[in-house]
Amino acid sequence: MKNVRNGAFAFPPAICYSLDSDILLGGDDVLCAVSYPETFSAKKEEAAYQHLLGRKLLYWAMEQEYGADPALLSVEGGEHGKPYFSNHPAEFSISHCQGYVCCALSEHEIGADMEVLREYDPRIARRICTEDELHFLETCTRRNEAFTVLWTLKESRMKLSGEGTHFGFQKAEFLWDEEKFSAVEKRVSAVTFEPFPNVFLSVCTEGKLPTEVKIISLSKIL
Q: Comparing C-alpha atoms, which of 183, 107, 179 is closest to residue 150?
């Protein structure tokens, strides 16, 4: 594999923050995220809260970017469960992990995934990675970060397809080249951000990639 550079792992350029302004990125795809301090005793309870925050963040972004009335937006599920607007052309993808929720908006199909840093697990890696991806992980010095980033990229690619895990982890292949992961499929563009310490957010699209993550305060959307 090219440019492994003795197993070193380098992240993409630093994220540019745009905190709490009321105007989002005109013309580009929009990527925003929020953190929450709440703790929950049950995963089911937190999952319900994350779902609520995801929808709140989505509707806030739609109102800011498109002037859409959240009360009039209708969300339905596709064949494999991917949600979409039945009465608006904007595409979106929502993701969450413990303590964080994100939302991506685009005029093109888009997939986003967010994960807290996870420990490299060779058993999981062998199940989801191709031989080239495994080679990179096995020679990489920052293995936990690389594994987490690769996971988010694969998840975001599968979300982009609209098929979810039916698309296949190994079919969603990314190779390390020129200091970044790139999709094997040339028509797919991908980018990864670290919007919060040890939290990685990846986006896949066939359109224009977002150039920043907009961090939103909880009070803006609740």
A: 183
